[in-house]
Amino acid sequence: MPLIGLYTGARLGEIAQLNLEDIWQNDHGIWLFDIIDGSDEDENGAPGKKRLKNVNARRQIPVHRELVRIGLIDWTERLREAGYTRLFPELKYDKVKGYGKSFTKAFSRYLSGLGMPRNGRKVFHSFRHNMTNKLLNELDAPTVLAKQVLGHERGDSTTVNTYRKDVTADGADSKLVRLIDSVNYNFLGSVVAFDISAGLKAVKDALDRKNRGLGAEED
Fold it and tell me: What CATH number belongs to 2-213?
């Protein structure tokens, strides 16, 4: 989740609720994240489990080449083969805070274990700030395109918001694809490919311990 956050700028809740089908390859060979809400209302018409902050949060973000290199696409395929439907099947759903609640607690414990003070300054949302800084300050991305990536209102006028269409990932030369692949974090060069076999064992173990050891399927 931290690496996806760094390379997309997506909100924690948007990442935590990703389904495997939300990561797909278009006709131009570009892998994409679909950041969308759900249509899975219950029989009483209550909202589905997948939620977004607002309509502007609906967007597509190309999967950065580094995420492909370290095995994200291969991992999604193995999860499908194992019968899962969600990218993070071990996360428990909370009716108020969605799928991100349990991860927030675990991540805070992780940062605390690294000796980071828990004063609200270094949090998962910091990855979103990193991406914003990359797009606007280092890469000098057009403001409207940066807003599209980050899921903000696209413009400052009714005309822009009503009539402007999002830039699409229609090939490697797309402005959107080139922008995402231009994002670089030199300190991540030593990150090795994900150990998929160990990951599958970890997911199974987490599910076995879910609900106080009673075991559970993905929510």
Answer: 1.10.443
The whole-number pLDDT of residue 163 equals: 46
Domain extents in the chain: 2-213
| 10-residue averages of pLDDT along the chain (219 residues) | 96 96 96 86 62 91 96 98 96 91 90 89 93 96 95 70 74 94 88 96 91 77
Q: What is the DSSP code (8-state) at residue 86?
A: B
Prediction pTM value: 0.89
Contacts of 196 (CB under 8 A, 6+ apart): 71, 74, 75, 78
Burial class (CB in 10 A: 0-12, 13-18, 19+), 90: buried
Starting at the earlier edge strand, list the strands of the sheet with 31-35: 23-25, 31-35, 59-62
State the sign of the Cα–Cα–Cα–Cα dihedral 141, 133, 192, 14. negative
Q: Which of 153, 173, 150 is nearest to 162 (CA)?
A: 153
Task: Please return the burial class of 119, using the count of CB atoms within 10 Å of its CB with bins 0-12, 13-18 and 19+.
Answer: exposed
User: What whole-number distance in Å separates Cα of residue 29 and Cα of residue 171?
Assistant: 7
The whole-angstrom separation of Cα 160 and Cα 8 is 23
